[in-house]
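Consider this record:
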Amino acid sequence: MFLASFTVFACMNTREQKNAEISKDDETYLQVVDSALLSTMNFQEKQKAIMVYKLAEHIELHVKDSVYTLAISEEEAKKLGVDKKTYDETVASIAEVNRNIADYNHSHEPNHSLELTDFKQLIKERKLAR
């Protein structure tokens, strides 16, 4: 749910670019996007989603501590085609999610736990399923 919400948020307020193409390698990242959502996305929104999913493959879940980390540097992300703005938005989004998880854990009994998503595994499974 976080990833879908983040994808929608990340794709807002963009304009369509004419005569642009998405590489075959990058098309694999779009396989994980819901087809109904994908059909409504313009080129720039698709590009943004690709960058988000490239980063999501590097989001690590630390189950014991109930936190997510982004295990890729800004420089490495740039080599994958991820711009600074998307990288910074992802880092900020992960920090916000971690704060929400911490708030939840502090306000609930120890026997109430959140089911956290392993994004690396989720993307891998979705790519294989399509």
In short: Helices lie at 2-10, 24-30, 35-38, 43-56, 74-79, 84-107, 119-129.
